[in-house]
Amino acid sequence: MEHRGQVKVSDHMLWLVQVPLPSDLIPPPTGIPGFVYFGNGGAITQTGVAGGTVDVTVVVLDEEPPVDASVWEDIDEGDLRTEEVGEVYIAGGYSFENIIPGNGRSLIPGAVAAHRVRVSASGRAAHYDEVADGEKYLIQMWPTSEPEAARKIQNLSGR
Length: 159
What we know:
CATH class: Mainly Beta
Number of helices: 0
Distance between the termini: 30 Å
Low-confidence stretches: none
Largest sheet: 6 strands, mixed
């Protein structure tokens, strides 16, 4: 299943989060190895822009897709573990505006589950720390039964 949209971000944050909001995601920790922090019930992507509109595509798959490093500058991967029943969606900043998929729907069924998540990004360095539009994100999710450590696959933007 694929969802596309634009998300208004603020505070350099694009959320993949379960509601109710897990307490270990606020505030996001500093010093993470990549540009995505994976925690229980959610993940926070550090956008290059401080604020603005980013293009987001979310694809929920049945199995792991191949990595396409030729199109994206930065790629991180980690686990999303939902520990209680709740909706999972994409939102921006602390205001949670422009929710994907919207209309009260969840990206994955509201259940205790584990998914591997790959976040690919382009344009994170173009307007770093500014209010601007134009960054692009692809978020791919698939079920997993074995937990794995988060990993940085590629970082060409330098951010």
